[in-house]
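Lecture 7, part 2: worked example. A protein chain together with adenosine monophosphate.
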Amino acid sequence: MTSPTFETFGFAEPLARALTQVGYTTPTPIQVQALPPQLEGRDLLGLAETGSGKTATFVLPLLQAIAANPVELGWKQVHTLILAPTRELAVQIDLEVASLARNMNIRRAVILGGVSKGPQINALKRGVHVCVATPGRLLDHVNMRSCDLSGVHTLVLDEADRMFDMGFIRDIKKIVSLIPMKRRTALFSATMPPEIRKFAYEILQDPFRVDLSTKTMVVDRIDQKVMVVRSAEKQSRLHTILADPACERVIVFTRTKRGADRVAERLGMAGINSAAFHGNKAQNARQRALNDFMAGHTRVLVATDIAARGIDVNNITHVINFDMPLDPETLRPSRRPHCAQGHQRHRDLVV
Ligand code: AMP
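Predicted complex, written out as structure tokens:
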């Protein structure tokens, strides 16, 4: 059997052209399964992780809907709303929307905390086709009446489990209550604990289910090691590991924000080029740290797990858990930032 191509989905010309321009020739497995039901207007429940191509899986159908039925945008109205747990993931999703909508004339807004509201109010004013938002800041705008969710046609929740972990459930329920019942909804989650399943079935109508957790696909390409190290020696052991030139692009996870700062500071003192990345940093400092890491200017990113969840960085060579994660799910390397090419090493430094 020949593998499907994007032509089989019948995308509108501007989208089909964008796919060629971005170099997506073959749909990924989740795209093969989850595009057709969404293009037919069905709700979707996707068990999938970063690295599977899931962003395009929800972005393509929503752009196709906009391309097929020209949208009249009312003042401050949002046509399509995408909710994401972290600011960086929201920015990443918006980049994918911008990239795939490059031949379409659409208005977008990214609504996230940690930056000033003024430019966001301006972006929302004339209405937007696609709004990517973190829940708390979006509700601020709703309360300030700078955005109107009563005309949302499509709702996407990305990394739903992470949003629950981060305590956004009340905000999300409030947001969903402001959106018309008659809508299309897609929910993606890397894991499906009972509370997410229950919530998913409350907000989805007869969803098509896709279960493509990338466990096996990703883990096969990862070597894992555990090192048992005394607490006082962990930092120096980290320096020894990083002395290996094979450690080209490394993420070190710490349990706390202070821990991340401390590890990064000591790496700096040892002359190892690193940056800390966590929720106490100002948004522009976080984005700069991430951009420098992605561009290869910083070799080691020291991050709290929650801040870095879902971030898609290519060519990570090593992931190091400086502390033993409390949550066993977090230990699974497939829940780690995506490593698109190359081989990833995964080490845990355990006290
Ligand atoms: P995601 O799981 O959405 O974070 O996507 C992981 C990476 O795969 C991103 O860098 C996407 O740009 C890329 N990607 C998504 N779909 C395709 C495709 N069909 N062909 C090639 N690359 C893709």
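The longest strand covers residues 222-228. The two ends are 51 Å apart (CA to CA). Keep this in mind for problem set question 3.
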